[in-house]
C-alpha cells in the first residue's frame, strides 16, 4: 500500500508540525505580552509574570505537578487548554495524547502496515487532541469577539447608571453569556481581591488571543493615564469593533473562491495519484521503486508545502 503509506506520512508530518507551531506561537505571543520590553523573552522570565501562568496547575497531584512544571511543553499545553476553555489539566491531556497515539499505532498494525509506518501514524495521532484544542480555542475567541460589542455597551450603560468601572464589570458579567461572562468575572474578582485594574486587564489580554479584547485593554489602560469619559470611550470602541467585524465578514465572502481553490489544489495531487494507482499500479509504482522517482516525490512534497503556505498568505488577511 505505497500510496496509503505516503498519505499517512504526509498527514502525520503536517498535523504534528502545524500543532507544534500553533502551540508554540500562542505561548510565545503571551510571553511577549507579559514581557513587552523584551523582543524574545525566555520561558523562565515569562513564567515569573503573575498574569501569565496564574493558577495554571499542571496536575492535581503535587509530585506530578512539580515534575511537569519543569517541562516547557506541559506549560504550553496547559496555557492552550486555558485559552480553549477546557477544564482538563495538562497531565490528563498528555495522557489522552499518548492513548491516541497508541490506539492509532495498534489500528495501523492490524491493517498490516509496517512497524515504522504505524509508529509514524501514531506520532501524527498524538497531535490530534492538540488540533482539537486549537480549534476549540479559535471558536471560543470568535464567540468572544461577537459578544464583546454588546458587552461594552452594557458596561457603558451601567456606568451611566452610577456604577464604577469594576462595579459595572461585576453587574454585567453576572448576566452575560459564556465565555465573556466568566472572563470578565475573573477580571472583577482579581481587582476585588487586591490586584490593580491594570493587572486585571493585562491578565485578560494574556489569557485571550482575541485582538478586539486587546484593543479594549489598551484603550482602557490609556484612559487610566490620560483621563476623560470612559463611557464615551467604551461606546466608541464597541462601534469600532462592530465595523471591524463587518469588514472581516466581507473579506471572508470575497476570499471564499480563493479558499475553495486552495483546497482543490491541495487535494488534487493526492486524488489524482489514487485514481492512477487504481487504474495502473505499475505506472505509479516507479515513484517509490526508482530512486529518481522517490527524489521527485520529495521535491514535490516540499514544493506543495511552499504552495500551501503561499496560498494561505493570499487568502488570509488581517483587518
Characterization of this structure:
The structure is a single chain. The chain has 319 residues and is mostly helical. It has three domains: 1-126, no CATH class; 139-250, Up-down Bundle (Receptor-associated Protein); 255-319. Helix content is 81%, strand content 0%. The protein is built from 15 helices and no strands. It is elongated, with a radius of gyration of 24 Å. Residues 36-54 have low confidence and may be disordered.
Structural class: mainly alpha
Q: Give the % helix.
A: over 70%
Strand content: under 5%
Ranges with pLDDT <50 over ≥5 residues? 36-54
Instruction: Return the string of H and E elements.
Output: HHHHHHHHHHHHHHH
Shape: elongated
- Main beta sheet, described? none
Number of strands: 0
Report how far the terminal alpha carbons are from each other. Answer: 45 Å
Q: Average pLDDT value?
A: 81
**Tally of contiguous helical segments:** 15
What count of structural domains?
3
User: Radius of gyration, rounded?
Assistant: 24 Å
Amino acid at each position: 500500500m505505497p500510496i496509503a503509506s505516503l498519505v499517512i506520512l504526509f498527514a502525520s508530518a503536517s498535523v504534528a508540525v502545524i500543532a507544534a507551531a500553533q502551540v508554540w506561537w500562542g505561548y510565545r505571543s503571551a510571553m511577549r505580552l507579559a514581557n513587552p520590553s523584551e523582543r524574545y523573552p525566555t520561558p523562565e522570565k515569562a513564567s515569573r509574570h503573575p498574569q501569565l501562568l496564574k493558577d495554571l496547575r499542571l496536575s492535581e497531584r503535587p509530585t506530578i505537578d512539580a515534575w511537569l512544571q519543569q517541562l516547557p511543553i506541559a506549560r504550553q499545553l496547559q496555557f492552550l487548554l486555558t485559552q480553549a476553555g477546557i477544564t482538563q489539566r495538562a497531565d490528563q491531556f498528555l495522557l489522552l495524547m499518548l492513548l491516541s497515539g497508541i490506539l492509532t499505532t495498534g489500528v495501523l498494525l492490524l491493517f498490516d502496515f509496517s512497524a515504522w509506518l504505524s509508529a509514524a501514524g501514531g506520532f501524527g495521532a498524538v497531535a490530534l487532541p492538540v488540533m482539537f484544542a486549537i480549534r476549540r480555542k479559535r471558536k471560543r475567541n470568535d464567540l468572544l469577539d461577537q459578544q464583546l460589542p454588546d458587552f461594552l455597551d452594557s458596561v457603558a450603560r451601567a456606568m451611566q447608571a452610577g456604577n464604577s468601572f469594576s462595579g459595572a464589570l461585576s453587574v454585567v458579567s453576572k448576566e452575560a453569556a459564556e465565555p465573556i461572562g466568566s472572563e470578565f468575572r475573573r477580571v472583577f474578582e482579581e481587582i476585588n481581591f487586591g490586584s490593580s485594574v491594570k493587572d486585571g486587564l493585562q491578565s485578560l489580554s494574556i489569557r485571550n488571543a482575541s485582538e478586539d479584547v486587546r484593543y479594549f485593554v489598551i484603550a482602557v489602560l490609556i484612559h487610566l493615564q490620560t483621563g476623560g469619559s470612559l463611557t464615551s470611550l467604551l461606546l466608541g470602541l464597541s462601534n469600532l469593533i462592530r465595523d471591524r467585524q463587518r469588514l472581516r465578514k466581507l473579506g471572508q465572502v470575497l476570499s471564499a473562491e480563493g479558499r475553495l481553490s486552495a483546497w482543490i489544489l491541495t487535494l488534487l495531487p493526492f486524488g489524482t495519484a489514487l485514481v492512477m494507482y487504481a487504474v495502473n499500479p505499475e505506472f505509479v509504482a516507479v515513484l517509490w521503486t526508482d530512486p529518481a522517482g522517490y527524489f521527485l516525490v520529495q521535491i514535490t512534497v516540499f514544493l506543495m508545502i511552499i504552495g500551501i503556505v503561499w496560498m494561505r498568505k493570499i487568502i488570509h488577511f488581517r483587518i
